[in-house]
Every structure is written in structure tokens, then in C-alpha cells.
Amino acid sequence: MIIETHRFRLASGTSRDSFVDADSQAQVDFFYQQAGLRRRTVASGDDGEWLTVTLWDSPDAARAAWRAAEENPAARHFLSLIDDDSTERKTYSLLG
């Protein structure tokens, strides 16, 4: 199992409420439909930074989901609200 983190800021002009709505829609319509997804959560910091933490069965499951996101309207909308220049994704392997 792996943990994937995705740190980012919202795109210019994106409100917190519209992002939260888009995230909820993407979670239901896309993320939880992906093979290998165990858990996903989103959080925001006081400084305007956001974080998603996702647990996947494998790195391949995570990569497949990101490829599939390009074709899914809810995922594309979610991603369109993120400032690409601020994005940082990392993966970590669980110990034991």
C-alpha cells in the first residue's frame, strides 16, 4: 500500500466553496470509482495551501487513476480549479 500526497493552491478566482463542491463531486463520481483506492481525504491550511491524502493499494493503481482522470468530467473540473504551478505530488510506501 502507498500513501499519495498532493499539495496545491487554488487557481486564481476559485472560491473555497466552489472547490469544496468540485472535490466532493470528484470524490463520488471519480476517485472512489477507481480500482485500488482505499481512502482519500482533503484538508486546507490557514495559509491557503490544500492537501489531499490518498491511500492506494499500489503505485500502479495511483498512476492508472491519474491517467483516467484526464477522461472524467468531474476529475477534470476538480483539477481545473488547482493552480498547476503550486502542485506537488509525492508517494510514500507504508512500512511493514
For this entry, give a set of tags:
96 residues, 3 helices, Alpha-Beta Plaits, 31% strand
Task: Describe the structure in your own words.
The protein has 96 residues and is an alpha+beta fold. Helix content is 34%, strand content 31%. The chain contains three helices and four strands, in the order βαββααβ. The chain has helices at residues 16-29, 59-69, 73-80; strands at 2-9, 37-44, 49-56, 88-93. The protein has a four-stranded antiparallel sheet. The longest helix is centred in the N-terminal third of the chain and has 14 residues, at 16-29. The model has no long low-confidence stretch (mean pLDDT 96).
In short:
The chain has 96 residues and is an alpha+beta fold. Helices cover 34% and strands 31% of the residues.
CATH architectural label: 2-Layer Sandwich
Annotation field: number of helices:
3
- CATH fold annotation: Alpha-Beta Plaits
Tell me the series of helices and strands, N- to C-terminal: EHEEHHE
- Compute the number of structural domains: 1
Main structural class:
alpha+beta
CATH class: Alpha Beta
Strand content: 25-35%
- The average pLDDT score comes to 96
Radius of gyration over alpha carbons? Answer: 13 Å
